[in-house]
Amino acid sequence: MSSKVNLTPQRKAIYDVIRESSDHPTAAEIIERLKVKDLSFAYGTVYNSLRYLTEVGLVHELKLGDAASRYDGNVDEHQHIQCQICGRVDEVFTDVTKEWLNAIAKETDYTVKSHQVILKGICPQCREQ
Amino acid sequence: MSSKVNLTPQRKAIYDVIRESSDHPTAAEIIERLKVKDLSFAYGTVYNSLRYLTEVGLVHELKLGDAASRYDGNVDEHQHIQCQICGRVDEVFTDVTKEWLNAIAKETDYTVKSHQVILKGICPQCREQ
DNA sequence: CGTATATTTAGACTAAGTCTAAAATAAAAT
DNA sequence: ATTTTATTTTAGACTTAGTCTAAATATACG
Ligand SMILES: [Mn+2]
Ligand SMILES: [Mn+2]
Ligand SMILES: [Zn+2]
Ligand SMILES: [Zn+2]
């Protein structure tokens, strides 16, 4: 069991870029950062690898409502807040309560499997302007 | 002030479809439903109208991480839960607490402007199968 | 080794939506 | 009422993000 994770050189390089990034890069940004390291993979390989890394749980895919998905090397449970002005994405570790999730299960009669909170606001830097 | 809302025939028809729908239709679904009423507008007009209706606050745009945005004629504050199996989207009126939002403002130093919760789970129907 | 399986590659293709420039409507000014 | 101005619609080209396909490579297995 525990089907071993198969990290090919491409997947490893992409995973490295994500872990070295703290800003939740998009696929396009990952491709840029690979290029800086003189690595250039087929377009499709980057997307296939991102899907693979997501599936095996090494990274998380964030869909914040922007056009492009972002990727997160921190797979600990946390949420995100995005600045409406500059677009930066920051971490949020204060999570919703279990009681709240239970209340929703009761209200909707769904079996709640996951929740994602997307907060929008103004970051400290942009507030100064 | 209060810059009056300009509901052209096209915008009105699209708004009507959204209000008559309770399933948060996508642009493509709205176009289908217009066709049933023998209404056919330019592709771009539908998107322009959806943007307009969203901007003036008559509808809400939902980005649940699917490919296409969905539109909601209920503009009262509420959240959504989507079935991972059949894709249907249901309403969630149990909202997060103000305390939780304050905790996030303190943690992140952001001025929190909005929050969107996307819950995923199994709907009662799909659970029976 | 030889064959099956998995992965990468380049490039065609798709889905959702935006943009553009011209035509049609509507509103405002003469 | 007619001209001028502003707004909206339209068709279709274009963009962005991502998937699909078929061939070429690489890896694993007997
Ligand atoms: Mn994160
Ligand atoms: Mn709703
Ligand atoms: Zn900012
Ligand atoms: Zn379902």
Helix and strand content put the structural class of chain A at alpha+beta
Largest interface: A-B, 35 and 35 residues
**Bound small molecules, deduplicated:** manganese (II) ion, zinc ion
The level 1 CATH classification of the largest domain in chain A is: Mainly Alpha
The protein's oligomeric status is homodimer
Q: What share of the residues of chain A lie within helices?
A: 25-40%
The strand order across the widest sheet of chain A is: 4-3-5
State the shape of chain A: flat
Structural Rg of chain A: 17 Å
The CATH superfamily of the largest domain in chain A appears as: Winged helix-like DNA-binding domain superfamily/Winged helix DNA-binding domain
Structural overview:
Chain A has 129 residues and is an alpha+beta fold. In chain A, 40% of the residues lie in helices and 21% in strands. Chain A folds into 2 domains: 64 residues, Winged helix-like DNA-binding domain superfamily/Winged helix DNA-binding domain (Arc Repressor Mutant, subunit A, Orthogonal Bundle), CATH 1.10.10.10; 50 residues, Ferric-uptake regulator, C-terminal dimerisarion domain (Dna Ligase, domain 1), CATH 3.30.1490. A 3-stranded mixed β-sheet of chain A has the order 4-3-5. A two-stranded antiparallel ribbon of chain A has the order 1-2. In chain A, strand 3 and strand 4 form a beta hairpin. The termini of chain A are far apart. The model of chain A has no long low-confidence stretch (mean pLDDT 94). The interface between A and B is medium-sized, with 35 and 35 residues. Strand 5 of chain A pairs antiparallel with strand 5 of chain B, so a sheet runs across the interface. Bound molecules: manganese (II) ion (2 copies) and zinc ion (2 copies). One zinc ion (ZN) binds next to helix 5 of chain B. Chain A binds a DNA duplex (30 and 30 nucleotides) through helix 3. Chains A, B: Its cofactor is Mn(2+); Fe(2+); Zn(2+). Chains A, B: GO terms for molecular function: DNA-binding transcription factor activity; transcription cis-regulatory region binding; zinc ion binding. Chains A, B: This is Transcriptional repressor. Chains A, B: Keywords: DNA-binding, Iron, Metal-binding, Repressor, Transcription, Transcription regulation, Zinc.
